[in-house]
Design brief:
Elements: E1 3-6, E2 12-15, E3 18-19, H1 25-36, H2 44-52, H3 60-75, E4 83-85, E5 88-90, H4 99-112, H5 115-126, H6 140-166, H7 170-183, H8 188-200, H9 204-222, H10 228-238, H11 273-289, E6 294-299, H12 306-316, E7 325-329, H13 342-352, H14 364-375, E8 381-387, H15 390-393, E9 404-409, H16 414-420, E10 423-426, H17 432-443, H18 445-450, H19 452-462, H20 466-478, H21 484-492, H22 497-500, H23 510-518, H24 523-532, E11 540-541, H25 542-549, H26 553-565, E12 570-573, E13 576-578, H27 581-594, H28 596-622, H29 645-668, H30 672-689, H31 692-709, H32 712-728, H33 732-748, H34 752-768, H35 772-789, H36 792-808, H37 812-829, H38 832-848, H39 852-869, H40 872-888, H41 892-908, H42 912-926
Parallel strand pairs: 6-9, 6-10, 7-8, 8-9
Antiparallel strand pairs: 1-2, 2-3, 4-5, 11-13, 12-13
Length: about 950
């Protein structure tokens, strides 16, 4: 049985290869202190100081003893235990069992042992590191120990580099040396090593440039010149000193080095932890299978950071590929050059692998076969960057399971998944946290923290697209004397936002990046892409897209899939598609330039009419007895079929934002009938779902449109329904003003039905203000009008209102009778919302009559029906009434539960006044009764 302790990474312990549970960070800190002092006793006070520093817990000794006890339990299976000795604590453990001690021993052996063994010993020592030493443990004493270990690690890496350079392995050292030199820019020994590796690789100009950069940094930060050794290295490179050339043992030519073709990794890479983990997983899964090649295709739109991800991961995984790395930029979507032919890329790989020119056949297929033969059995990484499509990739795939292939493309490469089992890794925009971190990495945290409002605006306008963020950050970094708000203001205007992201460099200009994807589309998909730039809402469904393009849904589905595969569109939910904000601006520009204003206006009109027709059909399902109003009927044309009320609610839920934006765009175009009609069609939905603010805003627009139309019927209706929205928001004075205007218009037009509806709304408004007598008078007037006209469906509404206010005025018998007649009429006409409302009224009457058990039964029936119908507004009201009856019965827990649900619904619906009223009721439950 063996035990191993890890300090060079997350502090951990393993017994026979199995991890032990060591507890939280403080407890592991105790273990780390004992392991770092394994040869001596540590007093309790020393342990407390090293684990908590200046912030020990109030009962520090008791807490420490608890940690030591739990550590003994965790280590019990290993036979190693914490012992008390000489007034302190000690963990007697063999040095070979602790990775930090093994690391030190191996490094010492490498420095004193035989020369042929030194490189292998250092490799073995450095392989023990699993991350930052003592990771996650952060006290002054442990931080100091971490710094000591880190300095030993760097020294070992420098020793290893000298040995490897002495063996002529400069190509393999270039990438890690570049990364290490960036992390330690003042280390002259490291600078000299990188200069030598660059010189030997034929990159002497870069070696000299690195010397100059190091010299300037030393002067600026330390006020000194480079040391004699680094100056000597500089002179030798200038003179191309023969002493710097790689060794050639036995006078023979040095063997061709393993290919190390990866470009320098992105310096400011940020985030993408999930994608990086998926790339690791793909390699691990392939190695476990031993038969399948690790093949991953990273796809995403232009500027989303596919190449950055690939190169960052590749450089972090160098140790997985000891036989080298091949890289080619296939330029599949390069705006400045044509794509690289696969045959050209294969030939480049053969040259990099050291295949003599005379041995390379002329036929491209034979070259591809030779390439597969040469890499067979090698542990190589092959990065195929910016592939056009699957056909572009296939000739470059090895035949060996030992190789790993990483492809990036703007297309999804589903063909590669189908034929070669590639793992598809779609890359989306950065999260808000990642985008904020990228901006701070570019500009410095002090600068971004100083202007939080400007940073929030930059993040909003760039919408998580790494290229857009980097363009803005580069411009801001170049002008540090400018406030960030200046750059945010440039992006604020959607009409000029793409101009602000123009770099005059086609490889990074956002328009040029988007254009290469757009111009690869076939004409029908390109036209649909342009039209989607005119869509008013945040996304679009397939039927709406078909109406927009005036085409069959089947053909539009194929085009949407093509746009999705090209990452010009995203199917974020089944059958629903959205476009990145910057891509939408680009699509709108192309539509303006290629289709013209009449075509754009016609497409938007088709879409608005589709929404309008379907909204009318959905409204009829939600509120079947709703009256046919003047000017109500939308223009003829296709709509989305809806079988029942549940489907209607689901459609409204999915399209709500689109409908609100469609009304706004219709108002901008002066399409006044459509604006009014959309307000009408959304009314029942807004009421049932409790979207009170949205209902108010749509009828504000509807009233403005009705004024423009000049027709008294729509104008009166707009006043009446805007009044209802005002009342729901507690704006009672405005509601009465609008209702008075509506009643005047309806009386002038001799429209008794509409007068009755207006009296009903007036009854409700006055009731909300506590004037129950005036409310009952209006309800009674509405009831009389409906009876005279024989409108039994709407007579039920008036009966229910009259019953409610009769109950409020103490006439419980009349209230009960009126409510029962309303319930019968609602059920006869199949009006389930009305039925639920009347059950709530009957519960209220029973509650006032002290028949609380009966009241509970009515309320529960009403609540179940409202919930089934998705009527959130009345669900909240009935929950409030239910709580009041539970409180009357002394059932305070049930009352609290009902009221808390009501408060949550009122908050969602922005019904602040109702929410506060119920919160006050909740407070009465928590206030003890005065005896």
């Amino acid at each position: 049985m063996t035990v191993e302790f890890v300090l060079l990474g997350d502090v951990a312990a393993r017994h026979d290869g199995r991890p032990l549970r060591l507890g939280h960070a403080r407890q592991r800190s105790v273990l780390a202190v004992l392991l770092l002092q394994a040869d001596q006793s540590v007093s309790a006070d020393q342990l407390i100081d090293r684990v908590w520093a200046e912030q020990p817990p109030r009962r520090a000794h008791s807490t420490l003893y608890g940690y030591l006890s739990r550590l003994r339990q965790a280590l019990a299976p290993t036979g190693v235990t914490v012992v008390r000795e000489h007034g302190g604590y000690q963990l007697p453990v063999a040095p070979a069992a602790v990775d930090a001690y093994r690391f030190t021993q191996l490094v010492d052996q490498a420095r004193t042992g035989p020369e042929p063994d030194r490189l292998a010993l250092l490799d073995e020592a450095l392989a023990l590191w699993q991350g930052d030493a003592l990771a996650g443990l952060d006290t002054p004493w442990l931080a100091a120990q971490r710094a000591v270990l880190d300095s030993r690690r760097l020294a070992a890496e420098l020793d290893r580099t000298d040995l490897a350079l002495g063996l002529g392995r400069h190509d393999a050292l270039l990438a890690p040396l570049t990364v290490r030199a960036a992390a330690h820019p003042l280390d002259e020994r490291l600078a000299g090593q990188l200069m030598l590796a660059l010189h030997r690789a034929g990159r002497s100009a870069e070696a000299l440039a690195h010397y100059q950069a190091t010299r300037l940094r030393l002067a600026d930060e330390l006020g000194i010149d480079p040391g004699a050794a680094l100056q000597q290295r500089h002179r030798q490179i200038l003179a191309d000193d023969a002493d710097l050339r790689p060794p050639t043992p036995g006078g023979q030519a040095a063997p061709h080095p393993e290919p190390r073709q990866l470009p320098v990794p992105p310096r400011l890479f940020t985030g993408r932890s999930r994608a990086l983990a998926q790339l690791d997983s793909a390699v691990d899964a392939a190695r476990d299978s031993t038969r399948a090649m690790a093949l991953t295709a990273v796809s995403g739109g232009g500027g989303v950071g596919k190449s950055w991800l690939a190169l960052h991961w590749a450089h972090t995984a160098l140790d997985r590929f000891p036989d080298g790395q091949l890289y080619v930029d296939l330029r599949g979507f390069d705006p400045t050059q044509p794509p690289v032919d696969a045959a050209v890329a294969v030939r480049g790989f053969l040259d990099a692998l050291g295949v003599p020119t005379a041995a390379i056949p002329a036929d491209p297929q034979a070259q591809a076969a030779l390439f597969r033969s040469v890499v067979a059995g090698r542990r190589l990484l092959i990065v195929l960057d910016d592939a056009r499509d699957t056909a572009h990739v296939l000739p470059l795939l090895p035949g060996s399971a030992t190789c790993t292939v990483l492809v990036t493309s703007r297309n999804q490469l589903t063909g590669l998944a189908a034929t070669h089992g590639a793992r598809l890794l779609p890359l989306d925009v950065l999260t808000d946290t990642e985008a904020r971190q990228l901006l701070a990495t570019h500009l410095g945290r002090e600068r971004t923290a100083a202007e939080p409002v400007a940073v929030a605006a930059l993040l909003r306008w760039c919408a998580g697209l790494p290229l857009a963020l980097s363009i803005v950050a580069a411009r801001a970094a170049a002008r540090r004397d400018f406030a960030l708000n200046a750059f945010a203001e440039e992006l604020r205007d959607a009409a000029t936002r793409l101009d602000a992201l123009d770099t005059a460099d086609l490889t990074t200009d956002l328009r040029a990046v988007f254009a290469t994807s757009y111009e690869a589309l076939p004409p029908p998909a390109a036209r649909l892409f342009r039209l989607l730039g005119t869509v008013p809402g945040p996304d679009i469904g397939l039927p709406a897209a078909a109406a927009l393009a005036e085409d069959e849904p089947g053909r539009i589905r194929l085009q949407l899939r093509l746009l999705d595969a090209a990452h010009l569109l995203q199917e974020h939910q089944p059958g629903r598609y959205r476009m990145h904000d910057l891509l939408r601006l680009y699509a709108a520009e192309r539509c303006r330039d290629e289709d013209g204003a009449p075509a754009r206006s016609a497409a938007l009109g088709r879409l608005v009419d589709f929404y309008l027709r379907t909204a009318y059909a959905a409204d009829r399902l939600l509120d079947p007895p709703r009256p046919e109003e003047p000017g109500q009927q939308p223009p003829p044309g296709p709509s989305h079929p809806l079988p029942d009320a549940n489907a209607a609610l689901a459609w409204f839920d999915a399209e709500h934002s689109c409908l609100l934006n469609a009304q706004r765009r219709a108002a901008e175009h002066g399409w006044h009938p459509r604006v009014w009609q959309l307000a009408w069609a959304l009314s029942s939905y807004h009421w049932q779902r409790g979207h009170l603010q949205a209902g108010f805003q749509t009828w504000q627009a509807g009233l403005a449109a009705a004024n423009q139309l000049g027709a008294p019927g729509p104008l009166a209706i707009a006043h009446r329904l805007l009044a209802r929205s005002c009342t729901l928001l507690g704006r009672h004075a405005e509601a009465v003003t609008h209702l008075d205007q509506a009643l005047t218009l309806f009386e002038a037009a001799d429209a008794p039905t509409d007068q009755a509806h207006t009296h009903q709304t007036l009854a409700w408004v006055w009731g909300q203000q506590g004037d129950d007598a005036r409310a009952l008078a209006h309800a009674t007037r509405a009831l009389t009008l409906h009876r005279e006209l024989g409108n039994t469906a709407w007579e039920a509404d008036a009966l229910n209102l009259a019953g409610w206010y009769s109950a409020r005025l103490g006439d419980h018998g009349q209230a009960h009778a009126l409510s029962l007649r309303a319930l019968a009429l609602y059920r006869r006409h199949g009006n389930r919302n009305g039925e639920a409302a009347t059950l709530d009224s009957l519960g209220y009457v029973a509650h006032l009559s002290a028949a609380h058990t009966t009241a509970l039964r009515y309320y529960r029936l009403a609540l179940a029906l409202f919930r089934e119908l998705g009527n959130h507004a009345y669900t909240a009201d009935t929950l409030t009434h239910l709580g009041e009856t539970h409180r009357a019965l002394g059932e305070h827990a049930a009352a609290e539960d009902a009221w808390r649900q009501a408060v949550d619904l009122y908050r969602t619906q922005q019904r602040t006044r109702d929410m506060r009223r119920v919160e006050e009721l909740l407070a009465t439950l928590r206030t003890p009764a005065i005896r």
